[in-house]
Amino acid sequence: MKTHLHNVGVCRRELLQVGFLGALGLMAPQAFGAKKRTPKAKSVILVWMPGGPPQMHLWDLKPDSPSQCKGTAKPISTKVAGMQFGYQMPLLAQQSKHLTVVRTMTIGQEDANHIPGHQLMLAGINELPRTFKSFATRNDWPSIGSVISALKPAQKGLPSAVHLPVRIRFEGSPCPGETAGWLGAKYDPWLIERDPADPKFTVPDLLPVAGMTVERLADRQRLLTDIDSYRRDLDKDVEIRQLSDTQARAFSLATSPAVRDAFDLSKEPDALRERYGKHSWGQSLLLARRLATAGVAFLQVNLGGLNHWDYHDKENDGLKRDMPK
After folding, report:
1. Nearest Cα residue to 26 out of 161, 116, 121
2. C-alpha 181: how far from chain center
3. Ordered DSSP codes for 77-93
4. pLDDT (tens digit per residue) in 160-179
5. pLDDT for res 154
6. Following CA atoms 38, 40, 43, 45 in sequence, which dihedral angle do they give, to the nearest 10 degrees?
7. What is the pLDDT of residue 324?
8. CB under 8 Å to 7, separation ≥6 — which residues?
9. Do the Cβ atoms of 215 and 263 come closer than 8 Å?
């Protein structure tokens, strides 16, 4: 894998990528000449807001700038001297000492927004694949969660990476950026398209098949293993190996008490569930927190579908609708 895709040295995006993956101990010791350090972060929760919320209303109000360069939101003070947020985020303002606001990040390409932007940002690579399309293919760059799945497999039967509660789609087809791409299906994040705020919330892959106990599933698994022993010549085929790996992962997930417990939001105190908000986004973030605590290394919470936060000239109306009340 290339360390970078240009001849101008290490760019800001690559430094951010090294810092991000380095938090999980995923970068090689020699990456960019850096010394190996003991990782501190055990899990990462990426809150993905497709289309991009307007920073001039939330994070970077620019109150002293000309009117065309600033938002209309009233600024409020935070716990950090000189840092102001929009009035819609009073609770986050109280936690600002734990945050870092990056105001200068850009993909540097006006025509690389929307669907191309998903691929670039969710892979952390500032170049589109040569065969890039508006829908996901196996030629896409691997998502961050997929890279973590490949380099830092989860323990205790848990998946390494989970995306929820929706998958980003364009005209019904999944967008690039949420699969393992050319790494193969074995490293795909677990994509859950269900609403955790629904009282009947379940994860389909964890539902028992009618009439099937864990013991019967285990018997079926042993039978499949015996059959596969006569088909080892097929293991030379990459797709066959990936299918076998996917089957093994599905079996592990379906029979793991730890996985079932991790997804059981009913075990969270009702007061905490209320604090997060009894709606899809709030409960999705709480579930991500619960899964991170259980040991899932990477969580991506998609707040809305494709370009949901791309308000254009209707920022005030959009924020009134989408920000916590």
Report:
1. 161
2. 15
3. E-SSTT-EEETT-HHHH
4. 999 999 999 999 999 999 99
5. 76
6. -120
7. 76
8. none
9. no
